[in-house]
Design a protein that fits this description.
Blueprint lengths: L2 E6 L6 H13 L3 E5 L10 E4 L15 E4 L19 E2 L4 H19 L2 H9 L15 E5 L3 H12 L3 E6 L9 E5 H11 L2 E4 L13 H6 L4 E5 L8 H9 L3 E6 L19 E3 L9 H16 L15
Parallel strand pairs: 1-2, 1-3, 3-4, 4-5, 6-7, 6-9, 7-8, 9-10, 10-11, 11-12
Helix pairs in contact: 1-8, 2-4
The chain binds NADPH dihydro-nicotinamide-adenine-dinucleotide phosphate (NDP).
NADPH dihydro-nicotinamide-adenine-dinucleotide phosphate binds next to helix 2, helix 4 and strand 7.
């Protein structure tokens, strides 16, 4: 099956493109990946992209489907990036939810078991125990209860936290999770939880949702973990909340501007743990089949799975 696929992930090397080429060809023999920016991509039917250059997708006259090279789609949902008539799908990979769950558990327990304190002590050869924090039944909020957030919440409940989830629409309560939605639910979680985990998609509604008021509403000593998108946080408000001692610290995988600039004040705040957007990485080995299925569906005139609601923004 001949199928021309325009590829873009911003990587200077073509190693990841080769990985996708190999994996996709197993399900779509004869498919060919070409760099989106090359003239050869002008006739592509499919775009497999992360943060494509503005205007380029509109030049592909045969384009039938855009595929986000990740679970988030904010990198494509920018005015002028994707023509309105082109369907957009995203990858939904349980392996990514699993990886992100592990990352959140790591961040939460590292804070609660004083990892940064003991690593600093070890660096100075100090062997001194501190009182262990009581964590049983600690209230923890997961903002975003979709493919990833719901797995994170379940795993956190399994290890003894009292987990509260937040979503846009009302979701059923379960025996392990208490569910909240809407602005009232958000305010309730801010003031009643000690740990706050953000795994929301970036939309107009979630941009800077964690602002000065949100951090002020959290109890003194609360901890913040962000695996969603950097622009959901007003970074100077977070820094101020930590500097004042109101918020104990934060573990962040995502930032408003990536890579995090050299002169960003987060680098100098020891209570902030910085990760370079690696909480869960897209893996062609586990994601290629669903991309191939979507391509086959679209070429057969059917709706692909994991279609993004362009109106809603995720
Ligand atoms: P989903 O679309 O499956 O879930 C999104 C969740 O957020 C849903 O529960 C949705 O509510 C909720 N939500 C959206 N908007 C609002 C709002 N305004 N108010 C309240 N809740 C809202 O997304 P995924 O779980 O697959 O992924 C979430 C995000 O994680 C991605 O968009 C991406 O930004 C980030 N991500 C980060 C990675 C990393 O390495 N750091 C890797 C992969 C993803 P409802 O249920 O009502 O629809």
């Amino acid at each position: 099956m001949t199928c021309l696929i325009a590829y873009h992930d911003g990587d200077e090397t073509d190693e990841r493109q080769r990985g996708w080429q190999t994996r996709l060809a197993a399900y779509l023999p004869g498919c060919q990946l070409v760099p989106l920016v090359d003239k050869a991509a002008d006739d592509a039917e499919i775009a497999l992209v992360w943060a494509p250059p503005a205007g380029r997708l509109a030049e592909l006259s045969q384009l039938k489907l855009a595929v986000s090279l990740g679970q988030g789609v904010d990198h494509v949902m920018v005015p002028g990036k994707l023509p309105d008539n082109i369907p957009l799908i995203r990858i939904v990979d349980p392996d990514m939810s699993h990886a992100l769950s592990q990352w959140v558990i790591l961040a939460a327990l590292d804070h609660l078991r004083d990892g940064p304190v003991y690593r600093e002590q070890a660096r100075k050869r100090v062997f001194a125990p501190h009182n262990q924090r009581q964590t049983r039944g600690l209230r923890l909020a997961v903002y975003g209860m979709g493919a990833i957030g719901s797995m994170i919440a379940t795993r956190l409940a399994d290890i003894g936290f009292q987990v509260h989830g937040w979503s846009r629409s009302e979701r059923p309560q379960t025996s392990a999770l208490t569910m909240h939605h809407g602005r009232k639910g958000f305010d309730n979680l801010l003031s009643n939880c000690q740990l706050h985990v953000c795994i929301l998609p970036l939309t107009d509604e979630t941009r800077h949702i964690f602002d000065t008021d949100a951090f002020a509403a959290m109890p003194r000593g609360a901890y913040f973990i962000n695996g969603g998108r950097g622009a959901q946080v007003d970074e100077s408000a977070l820094l101020q909340a930590i500097s004042s001692g109101h918020i104990a610290g934060a573990t962040l995988d995502v930032f408003e501007h990536e890579p995090l600039p050299d002169n960003h004040p987060f680098w100098d705040e020891p209570r902030i743990t910085i990760w370079p957007h690696v909480a869960a990485q897209t893996n062609p080995e586990t994601a290629a089949q669903q991309v191939a299925d979507a391509i086959i569906a679209v070429r057969a005139g059917q709706d692909p799975v994991n279609l993004v609601d362009r109106q809603r923004g995720y």
